[in-house]
Amino acid sequence: MYLDADDERILAGEQGETRQKMLELLVALGKVFGAERLVPIRSAQVSGASYKTIGEYGLQWLSSLNAKAVVPAVLNPIGMPRERWQEMGVNEDFAKKQQAVVAAYERLGIGLECTCTPYYLRETSYGDHLAWSESSAVSYANSVIGARTNREGGPGALAAALIGKTPCYGLHLAENRKPQVIVRVQADTRDWSIAHYGALGYHAGKLVGNRIPFFSGLNPDKDHLKALGAAMAATGAVALYHVEGITPEALKVPFDYTGLEVIAVESGEVEALFKDLPVDAVAVGCPHCSPGELATIAGLLAGKLVTKPLYVFAAQGVIDQNRKIADSIEKSGARVFADTCMVVSPVMEQYSAIMVNSGKALAYVPDMCGALARIGTIEVCVKVATE
Fold first, then answer.
1. Which domain holds residue 327?
2. Alpha carbon distance 313, 95 (integer Å)
3. Number of structural domains in the chain
């Protein structure tokens, strides 16, 4: 692998042991995947932020590092809201350990937005090279924005943040971003909700695995695309997809579709996922809610009171920019929490069945929370939470 003079000095230990070890990690990854060089990145997004997922050994490793991020970098959601953990019901022992994890990342210069939707807070543009790690954020960056990132592991993304570069392989290379399978949606999707796109992604991810799909028959907005990609990343390993006439590379790049497998998906296959199931809590915002989603929830809750716990998750920056809307939601008794989500917070483990409007959450809640999961539109979610 080609390294420039600055890289060689870091590798020789001239900028400290931590940066040396981080570059050694990146070089090793690059060699495994056949990268010829490192590429400078515009930003990083680091997973392994919830104490629920990294545990004591992960905390010890983070605490042993001594360097600062050299590019803008943010954290993935953690196991609790930083400011309202007591209100959410997080126990004090977990909170202390989670705060220690956050402090370790802060000392390394990682921004504490704690979100799976960093694209709402940091400008990211077509063609930007990134080192992002959360699966739904990777999918959105590659597919909806047209940026370039592999799905980094937590240590790899952290190393990239501290070095400012990542190995140039995989989805950083144009030749690896071509469609590999066609998914033809044979349904009237004009009135499909975010939940329908999430259900489509849940189903399609199982069909395409780790291939790059090209969708036809869709007319989505950006919230729909977010839900579609997040679910495919959860049930498959899809880090990039294209939608005919919609996503940037589908519009700009002349792909050759000759010989590709065609998978037909009918409306009944998607609708079959919408099963009636009694639940004892409702959670939305997986991935974290957009400003538009918050506004929709507020409108549906106007004049109503919740009868079941209703959790709404969003980035702190999005909540701050839409404070009146968030306050309106909370007048119903629902709670709008930042920094965390239903998947990584231990609080959600108290429920036996959780309703969501997300294909990603439908995939993760059973394993991560030990609860049954039911998917429904946001209208049905609000109805179930207030009936």
1. 281-386
2. 18
3. 3
pLDDT band at 43 (very low <50, low <70, confident <90, very high): very high
d(CA 218, CA 70): 40
> Is 136 found in the same domain as 45?
yes
Angle, in degrees to the nearest 10, between helices 323-330 and 291-301: 30
Examine residue 121 and state whether it is found in any structural domain, yes or no. Answer: yes
β-pairing, 310-313 with 335-337? Answer: parallel
Parallel, antiparallel, or unpaired for β 73-75 and 181-186?
unpaired
**Residue 276 covered by a domain:** no
CA distance 249 to 199: 24
Output the domain CATH number for residue 230.
3.40.1060.10
Domain shared by 187 and 134, yes or no: no
Q: What is the CATH number of the domain that holds 82?
A: 3.30.499
Q: How far apart are CA 314 and CA 299, in angstroms?
A: 17
pLDDT in tens, 103-125: 999 999 999 999 999 999 989 99
Q: Do 19 and 64 belong together in one domain?
A: yes
Q: In percent, how much of the chain has pLDDT > 90?
A: 99
Q: Residues 327-346: pLDDT tens digits?
A: 999 999 999 999 999 999 99
Which of 332, 282, 290 lies closest to 310, judged by CA? Answer: 282
Give SS3 for 276.
coil
The distance of Cα 247 from the centroid of its chain, to the nearest Å, equals 18
DSSP state of 302: T
